[in-house]
Amino acid sequence: FGRDVGTSIPLVLTGVTMSNPREEHILGQNPSVAFAVTERAGTSERTSHALHPSKDGEQTLASRTGAERILFAGSTNRHFAAFLWGADEDAEKDLQGVRVRTWPVQEPMGHHVLHSVPQAVYRFSLEVPPQGGRSARRFRLYLGPKTTEVFEERPEYERFDAIMDYDLRPLCFCSVPGVRLLARTLLWGMRGLHSIVGNWGLAIVLLTLIVRSLLVPLNFRMQKSMRAYGAKMSRLQPELEKLKKKYANDPKRMQQEMLAFQRKHKLFPPLGGCLPLLVTIPVFFGLFTALRVAYELRYQPFVAWIDDLSSPDRLFHLGLDLGFVHLEYFNLLPILMVVLW
Prior knowledge:
Blueprint: E1 8-14, E2 33-40, E3 46-51, E4 59-63, E5 68-76, E6 80-86, H1 89-94, E7 95-104, E8 116-127, E9 139-145, H2 148-151, H3 161-167, H4 179-197, H5 200-246, H6 251-265, H7 275-293, E10 316-321, E11 326-330, H8 332-340
Antiparallel strand pairs: 1-8, 2-3, 2-5, 4-7, 5-6, 6-9, 7-8, 10-11
Helix pairs in contact: 4-5, 4-7, 5-6, 5-7
């Protein structure tokens, strides 16, 4: 190549592009993402890097610096991943960085973020060997599902657990504390139930019943507190009405007397009644998140019209398009869940 021995040649490798079927989008969001993890030298401190499809051209996902090495990098869709990593220390040193370009899924659709996928572009630096010699580096490629069951099978797959943490992040603008831990726990419980009953749909039903039964004592406490508060309010209502009439022309004095009356009779809404709601919200989000990322539910049937537990149920075609809301099918299960939850 006309290069001096000891110098390096830059090489570029285009990574595997994962498909992005529209039916696997989540709440209208594109689940495809380029993902990488770097580790600081001499420590176990790891940093996750993620890029979604973008119209901004190639972007840098991760770079090797003097203090950091790239543990792995690649692209993912909702249920699968394609990750590349160095098989030894020399290969890790030669992986200099990863950039991401966006490609449309279907050419007629054009370069549109909602239907595009990220493609990892790996940059290497390979040292020129002496004349007659060879310079070779070994890399490994993971092509498979995103599930902790697979990642726990082999020690070298442990590094991929970071993508599960990323997938278990909240999709909405709010972040509910404890959702990731709850989602992991619920996934573990769902897999355990499946090993007993042998059906994923039935395992979800049993898991929901178990979670609901665990919340029953809290719900009972809330109802009891609210009933006691309502009965006390009814008993003291005549005295409150007298205060309102007495100070009808003096709003400031009325407010002072009302506060004094409440303190005297301890007439405050029971804050403990809100406890079940505060507990239920993280559990609800945790269950939703667990079902959203569970690879095991893909193409798993349950009953009747439910032939894929990883997708919304499609009872019948609706074809409703209001501009800001598009309802292609009527989904019965979310309505039942809200009613029964």
